[in-house]
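Field reference: sequence -> structure
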Amino acid sequence: MAKTHLTIKDLIIDCEDPERLAAFWGELLGRPVAARTGPYTWLERSEGPGLGFQRVAEAKAGKNRLHFDVASPDPAAEQARVEALGGRLLEQYAPGGFLVMADPEGNEFCIIPRGPFEVDDDGRTGYLGDRRGS
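Structure field:
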């Protein structure tokens, strides 16, 4: 039997308001809403997996067990754009040196540099320098 492997086709975010989150992530990633099917709102497919938002009755509870790392040439400068779109800075993660943000429903994500950066043995970094949380 030939060896096969699975591929990640889509990432689905459970949420209370799929339209709001699709608008936020669509603007952030430059991927407009492409479809609506039942409880799902889908962004236009681009490189990598598709991104969909599924309406669920339950609110987010606790820290995400999976989060996105989105890359930017200037992570610190991207913070203002995320906040203007309805996201917010999660200052409790600042000691780790990562720029950790939350989308409008509280789902955590990191904005990281496009290029390589150092991470120490404890999982901390310093790519923000003195601009952390500004």
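Note: The chain has a mean pLDDT of 93.
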